[in-house]
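Title: Request for sanity check on Sigma-70 family RNA polymerase sigma factor prediction

Description:
We are preparing a figure and want to confirm that the structure record we downloaded matches what your pipeline produces today. Could someone re-run it with the sequence below and paste the raw structure tokens into this thread? We only need the token string, no images.
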Amino acid sequence: MLEHRRDLVDLLDRVAARDRDAFEDLYRATSAKLYGVVVGILVRRSLADEALQDVYARIWERAGDFDPSKGSPIAWMAAIARNRALDDLRRAKAAPVSALPDGFDVASDAGSALDAMETNDRLRALIACLDQLDGEKREAVLLAYYRGCSREMLSSRFGRPVPTIKTWLHRSLLQLRLCLRR
């Protein structure tokens, strides 16, 4: 383990000097760990893939800032990954539901144009109903059912007990169901 730490410190030093081979070696040695950090926060693999690219761009730019006397190289890189993923979550929280694009994860094999139009109409209705939910409850529903966050993750995010989160989700789904029947 100590040897691995020294290897990573050496690789970061070389990356700070703009050594591309060292950067490739650093990526191979750490990408699985950092991907785990990012996907654990963002849940959706497509978002995690994009975030991981940005994490390594930041590591490339900031490798010279790493100070081995202040911590391990993997902890430093994991902090960059964690902060990048949390920034994405905060941005998603700030975006209103109505800002979601018309295509909002609609299956690509929608069939005919008529099927796609019907799907978009249902999607617009869902977005309108989501917009009627209280802010925290809307966010909880989106994080749970769109991003796949667990009740425990939501509990931590909102600072509420898990049973409260379950109640929020249950009542919000009932409200959505009623709204969509209109």
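Thanks, this matches our download. The radius of gyration is 21 Å.
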